[in-house]
Amino acid sequence: MMPWKPIGFWGWVLLLMQLLTARQVSCAFLQNQLPLQVVLTTPTQLLDNTTAEIQVTEGQAFQAVFSRPVIALGSDFGVAEPPKSLVPFTITCPVPGLFRWVTTNIARWDPTIQWPTDLDCKFEWNTALKSFDGAPLVLSGPKSITIKSKPIKMEIPDGGISSEFANKATDNQWNAYRGMQDDKFPEVPPDANITLTFSYPVYLPALQQALEVVSCCGSTAGANQKVKVLPCGPPFVIVDPFGTPEQQVQQRMNSTCAIVKLEPGLPPSGVAILRLPKGVRYNLVSGPTTNNTDIFLWGLRRFRIPLRDNFQQLANASQQFDYQDNGISYRRMTMWLPHGLAQGVTSAMIKNRIWFCRYEDPYDWSSKCNAVPFNLTQVNKGQLLMTVPDLWVRQHYWIKIYSSGGGCQAVRLCISLASCIPVRATAVS
């Protein structure tokens, strides 16, 4: 047996260092009592095991507060990007952002742009993360969670369809969304410019490649139409200030609106769908579209002459509405011409196709309807004025306008001063 010898001062120092090193490897200070955990997050769903996905909007940031310091105080000063071992979570979305340690135990990631649309990506915790003194991360919530954002919206705004031809033909009274109850809207003349608005900026060259015209509803329209995309004016863009120069150039070509022309235009009474298809990319940062986004477009409606631009036609005699809808209170009635009149067509020619009569019994539509004289003049390209000197109050009248094809447009009218018996309208043939 070797005799015991004193180890001396430096021997004790060496032994103490070995013991401390062994303790640091095996366990951090109070590791069992105070493990490294995530105690608070923004958004809060990151710690909820019952949440499979979260939806982000606007400039939503991601932040995590830990129970122990993860970095040494001041260790991140002047460091452009921390090592991956000190990044507590990653975001797989194609969205530019900045990560930083707010304090030694608070980490934050901010997008440098507003959250794009149609995202479907992941937030993932770094399960190998350790505290500054070596305590491993003990995760109580899900290891990853899906990040989603709203799908992009594509719409036609009010006044979003313009037609130089239709405006000239009606003295600027044409409107793509005005008409009778059974008209189809929006009406798209062959020369129309269609303005589209988007809920997030789109890259116009990508939009040009993505948009489709699709046939529908038994119409052959859309089978041969192509889309031409034009800028709608100064773009409203979202540019990443930290992006590369090449990325910033492309982002400046983004816009929340675009003008679309169909080539060739839709035929009369045709219908087609303008579609942003599922699965296409429309800018650098958004995800691919999650659904088809469709807008129905209708060709020129058939020629009819409503008594005003919002005249409501009912389907059958059993339906009713207020006298204000079909009630006439004056001996002069403005008749709206949705498309104007063709060259050479006069008001006298239109008058010869109009039949105007009064029922002998205003309560009985089967009673005899006697002709009533009237005058017809053209006020401007978009309006006719019908003057009936012999209009009586609380009576029922019938107007029929015969077409060149043999059919007719017919409607019954109630003439009233203040109130009226229920008014009904015939179907238009």
Residue ranges: pLDDT <50 for 5 or more in a row? 19-25, 309-327, 414-429
Strand fraction:
25-35%
What is the C-alpha radius of gyration, as a whole number of Å? 37 Å
- How many distinct helices? 6
User: Order of helices and strands, N to C?
Assistant: HEEEEEEEEEEHEHEEHEEEHEEHEEEEEE
Shape by Cα distribution: elongated
The N- and C-terminal alpha carbons lie at a distance of: 122 Å
Computed structural class = mainly beta
Overall pLDDT level: 80
Number of strands: 24
Amount of helix? 10-25%
What kind of sheet is the major sheet?
A: 5 strands, antiparallel
Protein architecture, described:
The chain is 11% helix and 30% strand. The chain is built from six helices and 24 strands. The strands form six sheets. Strands 9, 10, 11, 13 and 14 form a five-stranded antiparallel β-sheet that branches. Strands 17-24-23-19-20 form a five-stranded mixed β-sheet. The longest helix is centred in the N-terminal third of the chain and has 19 residues, at 8-26. The protein has helices at 8-26, 164-170, 204-210, 245-251, 323-326, 347-351; strands at residues 38-42, 53-55, 62-66, 89-91, 97-103, 106-111, 120-125, 144-148, 154-155, 161-162, 193-203, 212-215, 226-230, 254-263, 271-276, 293-298, 327-328, 332-336, 354-359, 369-371, 375-380, 383-387, 395-402, 408-415. The chain is mainly beta and 429 residues long.
